[in-house]
Amino acid sequence: MATSGVDKVARAEIRLWRAGLLAAFLLLWEAATRRAWVDPFFVSQPTVLAAQIVDWVRSGFIFRHLFVTMEETIIGFVLGTLLGVAVGFAFAHWPTLAHVFDPLMVALNAMPRVVLAPLFILWFGLGLLSKVVMVISLVFFVVFFSTYTGIREVDRDLVNNARILGANRRHLISHVLLPSALTWIFSSLRTSVGFALIGAVVGEYLGSHEGMGYVISYAESMFNATGVLAGLLVLMAAVIAIDVGLKRLDARFSYWKPVPK
Amino acid sequence: MTRADRTGRIALERVTQRFPLPREDREFTAVQDVSFDVDGGEFVSIVGPSGCGKSTLLGLIAGLVPVTAGRITLDGRPVDGVNPRLGFVFQRDALFPWKTVAQNVGLPLLFRGVDGAAARPRVADWIARIGLTGFERYHPHQLSGGMRKRVALAMTMVYEPEIVLMDEPFGALDVQTRNLMENDLLEIWAQLRRTVVFVTHDLEEAIALSDRIVVMTASPGRVKAVYAINLPRPRSVTEIRFHPDFGRLYETIWKDLKDEVRIGYERSRQGRAG
Known about the structure:
Distance between the termini of chain B: 42 Å
Number of helices of chain B: 7
Largest sheet of chain B: 6 strands, mixed
Largest interface: A-B, 21 and 24 residues
Helix content of chain B: 25-40%
Structural class of chain A: mainly alpha
Shape of chain A: globular
Number of strands of chain B: 10
Order of helices and strands of chain A: HHHHHHHHHHH
Helix content of chain A: over 70%
Structural class of chain B: alpha/beta
Distance between the termini of chain A: 8 Å
Largest sheet of chain A: none
Oligomer: heterodimer
Number of strands of chain A: 0
Strand order of the largest sheet of chain B: 6-7-8-3-9-10
């Protein structure tokens, strides 16, 4: 059990190791750049990085850009997810549809969307829309494929049982198919949220005048390694925060599942 | 009222079921020319070797799958799709894992449009009858195998189907739990007198529970013999085994069954469909 004494000790030990390794890495980095073993122009320096982030936070500069990126990510993520679930359901519901469009879906999914980003910018402009489309194009397929699989993999006995118990089509969807697919959908959401942020940042990186991708791209053009790394750290923190949130949400919807050991 | 007058009569007339085997370009005959009747309120077991089409028969009676040839009627009306007067207890307890015990038991009433106020006392009654009062808010994964089976039973009985089909319902339980469940089932059956068709590969279980036993042959399943079990009721499955007629019945029926079991076993060893 997770609460037993032995496990607690092991977990504390693991935390200690993690913190220790991180501290050692940062110390080595700091020392290496201070003693000029490596040029801080290329790799920056932990203290300088920290100062940069503090400065960004103090001036409020970072929040404006982070807000733009989050806005694109969330809008694209929500729309992409809804679209993915809807099309996944439609495919599972009308097999003919699935047979006709299956090759198209596979082909579209095989296309590297990141390379399409310049086209999206060309079509939808430098603003929000092109980034949202970019995010949708990444999120949609992840959610679509897991919804489709989730519904097809639903326990046949459960479907038969529901039919015997008197379920009509609507009952079947809301009481059997949707709850059963939710597990799959949720596990895909945690994957796709990372994709969503990548989509937004890549879009900004290639053509924008605001957002985290723009901040990184601008720092890069100034040969400012500190700016690039600080931007990446902020993004990393944002993804971790979202992932923790989704994990909680997943736990809420998966109350009926046995707790994994 | 005699049994033949009750509702819940089932008649199978030369029922044959074939499935296409897509990769082999031929058909597999699961059951062939099966005919037997079940009276209203009667408890009939179907026994036979693994893969003889016992479960297939239940699926056909339930209307989950249309028959290839022959006819199945319920109270004289041909089976055409899933019949709402019928209940089915599956081999694996097909509970809805995201619903609580009370929600599971209430589900058929919800599907039937029974409103909440009318459904609640019926659900509570059945939860009490299966001895799970206090567990209403539990989810299936928090229950033991025996408890889950009882929930499945309550879920079927709560809408009072006239015919209850059971597909090896207690097969996965340990012997003690199994005997308790069998006694519970007999008690419920004695109270409600619904028609029960019970599929099992356990001959002792079949004799202890049934009014009649249909013995099936190895695949393709046909009716080999039908035996009347005239042991006294009410029965206790643990005590009825000591009745002097029990051993005699077991010996007679087993003689029929064992050849089929051997054929079924040999075939499965050769890896053939069966």
